[in-house]
Design brief:
methyltransferase activity, methyltransferase, single chain, SAM-dependent_MTases_sf, about 40% helix, MeTrfase_EgtD-like, 10 helices, alpha/beta, binds N,N,N-trimethyl-histidine, 8-stranded mixed sheet, 14 strands, Dimethylhistidine N-methyltransferase, about 325 residues
Length: about 325
């Protein structure tokens, strides 16, 4: 039995150990995304309840011309996307930039080479005019490199309200890192899911078909698979809570009974009381005041913003 964490082979091992020996228990949402998790997230984006994707798609369709005019510049620009995924939303903007014959390179950054190659291939078929240079790596290392090597104007894209997984202090640090990599006339284009009727938010993170439940429980499935553990997924309940005051949606896995779980690779036994929780994810919702505050703390300024008809979702353009 491991009493103190000694040596861990991976950050995953260490983070799982820390989270499940803490009180209250937690797991980090970034570990949801293995191959199965990626697939489940694709399914989430296609659900009618998960309004975020469609809202952002509509904003891009509606405002692509105005957006393109703001980000375009004499001498061309590099369009750098953090975590591009399948690029479904970005392609709306790329097609418009191509139609208008704007001079730009598209540089999607992702940790997964596989995701990048798929994106590159689909672009070759769908919009072959785009000059794409895929960048495998972590966001900030790659951004730093690009800041050093290219003297073209940079436009950084971060879509999907992915920032919502971060507590405000971490979001500020994230924005500051981007700000450091930006030069005077560079732009940052980002999506922020907005505060709205709490019921719509709860529905988006607790669909009746159980896709989000499977997505959340994929953390346990992954620990079972990679760390040789014996979580019984049926013994946990997916639970979503939304606090309209803070705008924070929180996901949990709640133990339905007193139970013991063994994680062999960590030489760890984890005890759960009945109805004890594991906090797994936050999905922050925003309003203008909060986005302005985050931007100010990070040394950024809001240049303009675009919203959908209901104001459920908003894309902001920031400058230094
Ligand atoms: C990918 C972080 C934007 O929080 O809305 C979807 C992930 N979690 N359903 C979000 C997620 C549950 C998603 N982000």
């Amino acid at each position: 039995m491991k009493t103190t964490p000694t040596t861990f082979q991976t950050a995953f091992e260490e983070d799982v150990y820390k989270g499940l020996t803490s009180f209250p228990k937690y797991l980090l949402s970034k570990y949801i995304y293995d191959q199965k998790g990626d697939k489940l997230f694709q399914q989430i984006m296609a659900m009618p309840e998960y309004y975020l994707t469609n809202c952002e798609l509509n904003i891009l369709k509606h405002h692509k011309a105005a957006i393109a005019e703001i980000i375009n510049t004499k001498g061309g620009f590099d369009l750098i996307e953090l975590g591009a995924g399948d690029g479904k939303k970005t392609k709306i903007l790329l097609q418009h930039l191509v139609d208008k014959k704007y001079d730009f390179n598209y540089l999607p950054i992702d940790i997964s080479q596989h995701v990048l190659e798929e994106l590159e291939n689909s672009l070759k078929n769908e919009i072959p005019e785009v000059n794409v240079k895929i960048q495998q790596g972590t966001y900030f290392k790659t951004l730093e490199n690009l800041a050093g090597y290219s003297n073209r104007r940079k436009v950084i894209l971060f879509l999907g309200s992915n920032i919502g997984n971060l507590l405000h202090e971490n979001a500020i640090e994230f924005l500051r890192n981007i700000q450091h990599a930006m030069h005077q006339d560079d732009k940052l284009f980002m999506g922020f899911d907005q505060k709205k009727d709490p019921q719509n938010i709860l529905d988006a993170y607790n669909d009746k078909t159980g896709i989000t439940e499977a997505f959340n429980k994929n953390l346990l499935a992954r620990i079972n698979k990679e760390l040789d553990a014996d979580f019984n997924l049926d013994n946990f309940k997916h639970w979503e809570a939304y606090d309209p005051e803070s705008g924070t949606a929180k996901s949990y896995l709640v133990s339905k009974a007193h139970q013991k779980v063994t994680i062999k690779k960590l030489e760890l036994e984890v005890n759960f009381d009945a109805w004890e929780s594991i906090h797994t994810e936050i999905s922050q919702k925003y309003d203008d005041a909060v986005v302005e505050w985050l931007a100010k703390e990070a040394g950024l300024e809001i240049e303009t913003s675009f919203q959908d008809q209901e104001n459920w979702y908003k894309n902001y353009i920031f400058r230094k």
